[in-house]
Design brief:
Elements (H helix, E strand, L loop, with lengths): L2 H11 E5 L2 H16 L5 E9 H5 L14 H11 L14 H13 L1 E7 L7 E8 L4 E7 L5 E6 L2 E2 L20 H10 L6 H21 L10 H4 L2 H21 L4 E5 L3 H17 L4 H20 L9 H17 L4 H15 L11 H20 L15 H15 L3 H8 L1
Parallel strand pairs: 2-3
Antiparallel strand pairs: 1-8, 2-4, 4-5, 5-6, 6-7
Helix pairs in contact: 2-4, 4-5, 6-11, 7-9, 7-10, 9-10, 9-14, 10-11, 10-12, 10-14, 11-12, 11-15, 12-13, 12-14, 13-14
């Protein structure tokens, strides 16, 4: 890995979002459809989604509205008509827009369905028809902002389409965890300035919201003795993850930069190293090392999993990155860092995604806590991975097994999960 490939990973895996990513893509495609129809009055809207995307969008809050509803997300996207905002389309929503949702829904017919697609887990197709009979059809596939087709009355509108699979889909693949450690130790982070700015943005926003809520959960509220106790630190970290995650899941107007397709993973991945850096008074260079290690660890774990997962990809990746940066911070060797990841996965491997919703804030925050404890156990030589089961002595093989469990073995589970929820 070099500066060029690291920057490529950054560009492919950082996305500005407003609200849960999966509801954001619903607003985005609706906004794009309304924009393509210009100012025409809309008669009906038909949305077809992959079952995986449906599972993760049906129960999360619509930003500004603070309650769930795919039809409401569609209506709000239509009212906004700002496709240039992409997954952050809801950031400009006003109370006036909210007030118009029910009126719009009473005037148009809305059909929403979901099904299993054999070639992708992320598929969204919108057909929107005006009262004049003009029709726009849009397809988003494989990644949240990857618009592969926009047609108006059967004619492609190429200026509204992205080059398929070029910008949104990660081309460079991390080959092994040692590749990450080599890059982190080399210390040349040219081209990653945006990553450090975003990490600071996420962390400062988390601190601001904790202050707004009240309570003594900031670093400056810790006693010196507590800073040396990773169990106490992990509880304070939990608050730094829970508070911003909750805001986006309930539908507050709250901007988050997602990592590898997940806003909550962006919080867990980037807030954790900044929190630990402040707790241990790290200098700027040491802080950057933690941020880079955390980011690349999350990307590596998610690289092996489908973009919309059967398992909780956010929890698995957050826990692994938290384990890695904790072991690294405490002076652990390469083997300690790998054992920290293995220890976390030994306790969490396979926990299910039962749809994006408010309680996801605890999945990601508990993952960050447990990752810290796994890092401590590894450095204390208290971690045990004997290579049996899904966890192998080789951490790269463990992560590949996680991917296989999610992508292949559990692939058919979503239908049953959707029925249960």
């Amino acid at each position: 890995m070099n500066s060029k490939t690291a920057k490529e990973l950054l560009n492919a895996n950082i996305t500005k979002t407003m609200g849960c990513t999966d509801i954001g893509v619903v607003g985005y495609i609706a906004s794009l459809g309304a924009y393509a129809l210009k100012d025409s009055k809309i008669r009906n809207v038909e949305l077809v989604m992959s079952e995986e995307l449906y599972k993760n969008s049906v129960n999360v809050g619509v930003p500004g509205l603070k309650k769930s509803g795919l039809d409401k997300a569609l209506a709000l996207g239509i009212l906004l008509k700002k496709p240039d905002k992409k997954l952050a389309v809801f950031e400009s929503v006003t109370n006036d827009d909210i007030d118009k949702i029910e009126e719009l829904l009473s005037d148009i017919d809305v059909s929403i369905s979901h099904k299993k697609f054999d070639d992708t887990v992320l598929y969204e197709e919108l057909t929107i028809t005006s009262c004049k009979g003009d029709t726009v059809n849009i397809v988003i596939k494989d990644f949240y902002d990857n618009v592969v087709s926009v047609k108006r009355n059967g004619e492609a509108l190429e200026d509204l389409q992205k080059d398929q699979l070029i910008q949104g889909i990660q081309k460079y693949k991390i080959s092994s965890y040692d590749e990450i450690l080599d890059y982190v130790e080399a210390g040349n982070y040219e081209g990653l300035e945006g990553l450090f700015e975003i990490a600071n943005f996420q962390y400062e926003n988390a601190r601001t919201e904790i202050k707004n809520e009240g309570g003594d959960f900031l670093i400056e509220d810790l006693k010196e003795s507590q800073k040396e106790c990773l169990y106490d630190l992990s509880n304070f970290l939990r608050k730094h993850i829970t508070v911003p995650s909750r805001k986006r899941m309930v539908g507050d107007i709250y901007t988050v930069y997602g990592v590898a397709g997940s806003g909550n993973l962006g919080i867990g991945t980037l807030v954790t190293p900044k929190f630990l850096a402040q707790a241990f008074n790290l200098n700027d260079y040491e802080t950057k090392r933690l941020v880079v290690l955390s980011f690349l660890t999350s990307v590596y774990v998610k690289q092996e999993m489908s973009v919309v997962t059967v398992l909780c990809g956010t929890g698995h990746a957050t826990g692994c990155s938290s384990a890695a940066v904790t072991a690294f911070l405490k002076g652990g060797s390469r083997q300690h860092i790998k054992e920290a990841i293995n220890t976390y996965l030994a306790t969490s491997m396979g926990f299910i995604c039962d749809g994006a919703k408010l309680s996801c804030v605890h999945k990601v925050s508990f993952a960050s806590m447990n990752g810290m404890i796994s890092g401590k156990m590894a450095v204390d030589n208290d971690a045990v991975c004997d290579g049996t089961g899904l966890n192998k002595l080789d951490v790269d093989q463990t992560i590949k097994n996680l991917g296989k469990l999610n992508n292949e073995i559990m692939n058919s589970a979503n239908k049953g999960i959707i029925e249960l929820i």
